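Table S2 (text version). Query chain:
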Amino acid sequence: MAIKKTILAWGRMVRPPIMFLCSFGALVSALNCAAYLDVELSLFQMLMILLVPAFLSTGIMLHNDVPDLESDRINRPHKPLPSGTIKVRTAFITGITLMLLAIVLSLFINIQEEGTLNWNCAILTTILVALGIYYNYRGKYHGIFGHMAVAFGVGAIPYWGGIAAFPHLPVLMLPLGFAIFFQETGREIMVCAGDYQGDLKAGWKTTPVRLGRKRAMVVALLFYLFFIPLFPLPAFDWAGLKVPQIFGAIYLIGGVILASSLFLTWILTYRVVLTKDENKIWKAFERYERTGTRLIIVVFQLFMFIEVFY
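Corresponding structure-token output:
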């Protein structure tokens, strides 16, 4: 029974949904770049593009739970670390090991095809590790820059996939990464608004704690609005910026669904916030912002995957 409990606890800490979002998002981006350039990725490249983000995201997530203890004891006391199922030191060492492994492996993504090390991808992976550590130990406590650190990491998923496969063409996925940065900054503020009570008691200075929950949600809405004109650029260069037209109509449909769903979840959550019932508010943020928006992003990635074949 104890072994089963430990295995389940590790499964929770690994965050399979986040691992999937990172690995699948990177692969889908690489495949779209390959289709745009009319080349094929090897099985080795695709495997590495799946594996490295899995190690990277898992390492950062394991590391994240260590400084999260104070808030989790209030918000989520049944998680593996606050409940004592997994030792803090074990999670810390495992997280560091996986992050270092991600950096090393990123060097070898193209070694079989080109016989060269992918220094661009390794540098970006190192930057993401540094940002992850910054966020885990400082950024999450200090408002908008912490939210942006997370958003940079999420926006880097498609960008990382592009330079993992094509390190000498760094602009291919830059517009999409930029758009996702704004969308994810808004989402991160919304998630922290759900954690408001625990973060307040833990003394964390997140944007909702600094501004209040309602004002923070308005700020999040502004970032969602910035996403709208940016996401079409990789498929429809309305601004005349000579953005590489990686995607097509299917991607645009997925983007419209994503943007519409973000606003819908915002409205549904804000309506519950007006009730001032903390129990209902907590459940609403968990349902709509933490879980709902994550599912929406998976749907968006599926549209991007379908785009590869058209």
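Notes on Table S2: The CA atoms of residues 107 and 279 lie 47 Å apart. The radius of gyration is 19 Å.
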